[in-house]
Each structure stands twice: as C-alpha cells, then as structure tokens.
Amino acid sequence: MLKPGDIAPAFELPCAVDDRLSRLSLSKVASQFVVLFFYPRDFSFICPTEVVGFHKAERDFAAEGAQLMGISVDNAESHLRWARELGGINYPLLADEGGTVAQAYGVFDEREKVALRATFILDPQRVVAYALASRNNVGRSVVETLRVMRAVCSRRLCPADWKPGQGFGPAGQNY
Prior knowledge:
- The protein is of the alpha+beta class.
- It has helices at 47-63, 76-85, 100-104, 142-154; strands at 12-17, 20-25, 33-38, 66-72, 93-95, 108-109, 114-115, 117-122, 128-134.
- The longest helix is centred in the first third of the chain and has 17 residues, at 47-63.
- It is globular and about 45 Å long.
C-alpha cells in the first residue's frame, strides 16, 4: 500500500459525474488536494453509507480545496445507475474495471477481486499526505476524513482529536 511521501500513480478512468458518463484524469484535476477513496462495490451494504456521507460533506471538502473521488471495480454505467438510485452524487465515481488503479495504490484484494476500503489524501503535487485502509466490513468515518483533511491543510502539528479552531500541540498551545 502507498504510504505518506509516495507519489500517487497517475490514472485516467471512465466515471459517472453530474448524472452523465465522462472520463477523469488525475493529472487534470485542478483542486489543491484530492481525497481518493476506494470502496469494494456499488449496490452493496456499507458502500452507500460512505458514498452518500461523502456526498453530504462535499462542500466541506471543497472549502478545504479538496476534490472528492470514489473508485471501485464497477463500470461507469453501474456507477451512474447507482448514483441515481442514491439520489445523485456530486463528485466523480471512477470505474477501475479489473482493479489496475487499486493494484497501483496497493489496495486490491486479489482473493475477492475488489478494492479494499482505503482512503488517500493527495497533496497539490499528488504526493500521498495520508493513507488508511481497513477490512471491507468496516465503514470509514467521513467526519474523521474531513478532520484529517483539515489537519493536513493546516500544515501544523495537530494532536490526536484536534479540530479546527483549537490550538495546535499539547494543551492547545501553538507551535
């Protein structure tokens, strides 16, 4: 699995975005940061809770200069149908059929032939600033991902459970 400091592999994939099919290239994303989250499959039990959770928080991520992107091994047509079923998703769902990008990021489950549940925050140079993966039966926290995104953007020392508006370092002291 990629770790902080690794250069994120480039990709160009079909996707569903804004209720249409398109293509997206990581190198052409204009945002400062990218939050790329891998999930196993559309039309599953845990994945819609995360995808909808990120949808609801998309403006908060955008306010930090971050572009959200979801990615699974499903095809773009499946993403489009699923996004419509979920009531619309306001960020791209990328189609990594075959799992080539998941393999490049080190998060492909060879046994199940799906991506692990993994999150990467990429900085403006598309270097990994944050990486997390879990078993596919454990959904990630959108709130925690946003907290980490804000901490990364602060470029400061941020203690455990730090939140925007608090000081930095022990007992809220600034460094």
